[in-house]
Amino acid sequence: MSTRYALAYRFGITPWERYAKAAAASTGALLDREEAERPHRPGRAIDLGCGRGLYTRELARRGWEAVGIDNVPRAIEAASRRGGVGATFVVGDVTGLAPTGLGTFDFFLDAGCFQGLSPGQRLAEGQGVCALANPGATLLMLAFGPTRMRAIVEGVSRAEVQAAFPGWEMLSAELADTTGLGWPMNKTAPQWYRLRRQA
Length: 199
Prior knowledge:
The protein is an alpha/beta fold. It is 35% helix and 25% strand. The protein has one domain (2-96, 103-197): Vaccinia Virus protein VP39 (Rossmann fold), CATH 3.40.50. The N and C termini lie far apart (34 Å).
């Protein structure tokens, strides 16, 4: 998967960035809710599969101590060049979070990364998130739903998300804004899943 994304960044084929910009208002509303429902000010957040850091910088702008992690060095180099006060970027694998030494987090954001992993890799991401999660931590995940076009457009079911995060409560599953998504992605019923680590 990293080779495919490395090629995408090299040739400037990054539809997920177009979506991030087009759907910024709806994503911002989700982050507003996330912050409003927390008992304390924003703490530490990690953007899983951050790419060039659009969401990481937004989290930092909102007051989070934000870390972006991605396994494509070209994307992390670009994210680091663009900077952002309060944002840190590291090359790393979301399926091997526990040994990274990044510390623990209060909030995890996965905007389209989890869905592109194999079943075993999804479980590994879940294990890593569990290892780095503070008590009461939350996870916000954007993922396409499974379709008959799965070989072309990756997607996951709610059950697959829940299976990867045992001990986490599913707080909500909401249809995502499809503004900026072209065909066939806009036919996949993308969802925003919100989970909370149970005490």
